[in-house]
Amino acid sequence: MSLFGALRAAMQVPELRRKLLITIGLIIVFRCLATITIPGVNGAALKELFSTNGLLGLVNLFSGSGFSTTGSNAGISVVALGLNPYINATIIMQLMTVISTRVKEMSKEGDLGRRRLTQYARYLTVGLAMVQGFGYTRLFESFSYQGQTILSPTTSWPTILEIVVILTGGTIIIMWFGELITEYGIGNGVSIIIMAGILGQVPGAVLAFTNGGSAETFTVFMLAVVGILVAAGIIFVQQATRKIPIQSAQRVVGRQVYQGRSSFLPLRVNQAGVIPIIFAISIMFFPTIFGNFFAPAVGHGGGVIGEAATWVHTNWNPFGPIVWVDIGYEFIYFALIMGFTFFYTAVTFDPEDAADNLKKSATFIPGIRPGRATAQYLARVMSRITLAGAIFLGLITVVLPILAALVTGQQPNQGLYLGGTAVLIVVGVSLDTMKQLETQLLMRQYRGFIH
Question: The pTM is what?
Answer without folding.
Answer: 0.76
